[in-house]
Amino acid sequence: MASNKPAPEAPSRFGSDFTTEYGSGTDTEFGTEFGTEGFGETDRAWEEWNPTEESVRPVRGRHRVAKQRNGLARSSTVLGVGVIAAVGAGGMATAQSKPPVSISLPDSIADNLPDAGSLPGVGALFSDESATDRAQAATAAAPLTSAGITTAEAEQGATDAGEALRARILQQAEQQQNAADAEARAAEEKAAAEKAAAEAKQKQDVAEAKAEAAKKKAEEEAKAKAEAERLAKLAASYAIPTSSYTITSTFGQAGSMWSSGYHTGLDFAAPTGTPIKAIHTGTIKSAGWSGSYGYRTVLELEDGTELWFCHQSSINVSVGQKVTTGETIGRVGATGNVTGPHLHLEVHTSSGTGIDPMTWLRDKGLTP
């Protein structure tokens, strides 16, 4: 252990009240620590104080600290209580302006004392930098805050919460933009699909319409072909009643020359003696004179239809005779109520109703 001389007793700076509260000046470490300036005492010479275990007495009163191993707790208490006393008395500036006092401690104590700069509230007294400078330097060096930084961000090296927040905002904005772009693309794809479907449906409708038209046309053509075949077949079994003729009067034509007031048949004007042929196979129902009709032959067909051949100059058949299509049954003349030689043809149904001979002949495939 180093040899230390007892320090001289220093007068008290705190007055009787302080002495009463904390003990006499000789029993405390505050007198030597801070001097007498600022406490109403005259300036005295500063001397080195080398306390020993025998010269340091336990602090009495409510601030007494239990003695610990190697004197560590007592030495720390000396420094901490001294700082508190200086601040409470308003003498911090004065204490900082005084030159430091050299203190020698036993090796067993000095070796175990902590660094003064690491003590709370004391390190600032041993630094050349001001508290403001240190605070500004710490503020500039440290991030704003680490609050809000996720573990993943911390592992990636992010230490600034502001930058982390900014990065998250940018990431969210990018995600929202990507979502909007995806939604826009989906809308465009949907619109394109709908447009394609509409175009396909339109094409399908056009194709179906064309197919329907083609089908209808084919049906009409087939029907027309069938009708042509029917008429051709009928034409083969039906014949025009005379030749070298001219149609002069038609069915229903009005005029005073006819007793009924209108023409009841179809007139084929032809020279007298022109052959009159059977239009279809049938049986001769009557043949002879018939008043205003002159010489008339009535041919009855299988369905009961009657064909009247009037104004003949001669008759070549008799009642009950079977005739075939194209067979000569008489000749054109001008007998009866006429103005000139012609064949007056009338068509009557099985019920006796007269119909248009032109229409009936056309229905049989003939064109007079």
TrEMBL record:
<feature type="compositionally biased region" description="Low complexity">
    <location>
        <begin position="25"/>
        <end position="36"/>
    </location>
</feature>
<keyword id="KW-0378">Hydrolase</keyword>
<feature type="region of interest" description="Disordered">
    <location>
        <begin position="1"/>
        <end position="71"/>
    </location>
</feature>
<feature type="region of interest" description="Disordered">
    <location>
        <begin position="176"/>
        <end position="199"/>
    </location>
</feature>
<dbReference type="InterPro" id="IPR011055">
    <property type="entry name" value="Dup_hybrid_motif"/>
</dbReference>
<feature type="domain" description="M23ase beta-sheet core">
    <location>
        <begin position="262"/>
        <end position="357"/>
    </location>
</feature>
<dbReference type="GO" id="GO:0016787">
    <property type="term" value="F:hydrolase activity"/>
</dbReference>
<dbReference type="Pfam" id="PF01551">
    <property type="entry name" value="Peptidase_M23"/>
</dbReference>
<dbReference type="InterPro" id="IPR050570">
    <property type="entry name" value="Cell_wall_metabolism_enzyme"/>
</dbReference>
<feature type="compositionally biased region" description="Basic and acidic residues">
    <location>
        <begin position="182"/>
        <end position="199"/>
    </location>
</feature>
<protein>
    <submittedName>
        <fullName>M23 family metallopeptidase</fullName>
        <ecNumber>3.4.24.-</ecNumber>
    </submittedName>
</protein>
<dbReference type="InterPro" id="IPR016047">
    <property type="entry name" value="M23ase_b-sheet_dom"/>
</dbReference>
